[in-house]
């Protein structure tokens, strides 16, 4: 089966099912800042990790108009209190319109909270009290799953996740034998691989059957390769058909020659018999 079409079939097969949120799309609410005065402080390692995973998740969920993938933006989760906000590196919300884009996300206005958030550890955040952050995201904000990952290869590997059950209990997600974690909320596997050319410990998503979710650039090259294969296959088919036609012509010509030779021999034999009779 064609690789791209095969992925599209699986994409629809594994896509989570969820209801539409009860609120309405809210681009901006006056009085809730969409940014702060602090400069963005992320390393190049984090830049590669954030943009790569954002691109992969955005491309994967693009077929569903009710999935929002946010990156490095505020989530306000308590109406009337502008201090009740978080800004994870990546968050995914189900049941809300993908567009228009928002300056921030207001949980009470949209009637939904992120189902999963990803935080990539920096020098500042790796020393945060993780139990406190887990409680903040899963209990106070209401997120279903919270993941942290260290993308810098020079630092010790860290990839952990926590999940909140329907009863409100919090449990750490069990590591797979190969180092991956499965997100029940997103129905996706997440595993990291070392990118030695960039020194990034890159976290990537996979379908439940292990199929990798490609980036837009990787998908572009896959399409180009598929197109080139199709062109080559078409040329091969044309050449094969030409050879078939040539073979058919050759066979027909051989039959015609055989028939002509047989007819000549018959006529010669007939002529010889007449001469003998005379």
Present the secondary structure layout.
Elements: H1 3-14, H2 44-60, E1 67-71, E2 75-76, E3 85-86, E4 90-94, E5 105-106, H3 107-110, E6 116-120, H4 130-141, E7 145-149, E8 159-164, E9 170-172, E10 181-183, E11 188-195, E12 200-206, H5 216-277
Parallel strand pairs: 2-5, 6-7
Antiparallel strand pairs: 1-4, 2-3, 4-6, 7-8, 8-9, 10-11, 11-12
Describe the structure.
The chain is of the alpha+beta class. It folds into two domains: 3-214, tt1808, chain A (Alpha-Beta Complex); 215-278. It has five helices and twelve strands. The protein has helices at residues 3-14, 44-60, 107-110, 130-141, 216-277, and strands at residues 67-71, 75-76, 85-86, 90-94, 105-106, 116-120, 145-149, 159-164, 170-172, 181-183, 188-195, 200-206. The protein has a six-stranded mixed sheet, with helices on both faces. The protein has a three-stranded mixed sheet with strand order 3-2-5. A hairpin with a 4-residue loop joins strand 11 (188-195) and strand 12. The model has no long low-confidence stretch (mean pLDDT 87).
CATH topology of the largest domain: tt1808, chain A
- CATH hierarchy, class of the largest domain: Alpha Beta
When the domains are counted, the total is 2
Pick out the low-confidence regions.
Answer: none
Label this structure with key terms.
278 residues, elongated, single chain, six-stranded mixed sheet, tt1808, chain A, 5 helices, alpha+beta
Task: Give the structure's gist in a few sentences.
The chain has 278 residues and is α+β, with helices and mostly antiparallel strands.
